[in-house]
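Weekly puzzle thread! Below is a chain. First person to post its structure in token form gets bragging rights.
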Amino acid sequence: METGLKDKVALLVASSEGIARAAAERFAAEGVRLAMCARNEAKLAKAAEGLRVRYGADVLAEAVDVSDFAAVQAFIYRVIERFGRIDICLANSGGPPAKSFLSIELEQWKKNVDLIFLSVVNLAKCVIPSMQKNGGGRFIAITSTSVKGSIPDLVMSNAVRPAVVGLLKSLSIEFGKDNITFNNVAPGYTATERLNELAGTRAPAANVSIADIHKKWSEEIPLHRLARPEEVADAIVWLASDRASYITGQTILVDGGRYPGVA
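Winning reply:
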């Protein structure tokens, strides 16, 4: 299937591991030029080098804190200086810890608003002008099924991630005339380090093993298994491709059918 992605430029945030790392691999296989950033410089360098070796990918990789607007602005300037444009932006961030509401300090709320929501604002403000100049683009955010239904013990994710959906819906309306689409991908339980961290928090409280937690989660999913990061990445690549040119302002769930709602 022709995707129209060859030689496009994609900026992928927090792409040293997990779903965004899988997306980087899928994009590299399509011949996309990559700008990768993450906070862990060593992991990021390893991921970028792996893509260069396996696919001959053209990769710019730098350690960046996307909650820092000046750092994002400087990185995007270097991306445009290197590649001349940005066609695709994948917004992503680490998830907040599993905690009960009363145990969360105000500073943790502020930190996670910066990380989950304002990082997307930072990216959008910096990449939209480049996309306008070049006749369009794709802006995609990795969120969570918490934007559809609350997840126990993840009150910060339940509260803050829906703001990203509201933001991108608003941007899809404002910048549709510029041929820029804005969409969210909302993964369910996906076999990543993040999921292992959550299982590690819940297992002792329930006096069971991490494997038992994974099994319980799998049993809640109609497909009876956790998602692979590559399966979520495929949805991201599709939204970035020419095949999804008329899709905007939407949230695509990749959760194996776990979310029970019809809307």
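Puzzle host: Confirmed. Bonus trivia for everyone else. The chain has eight helices and seven strands.
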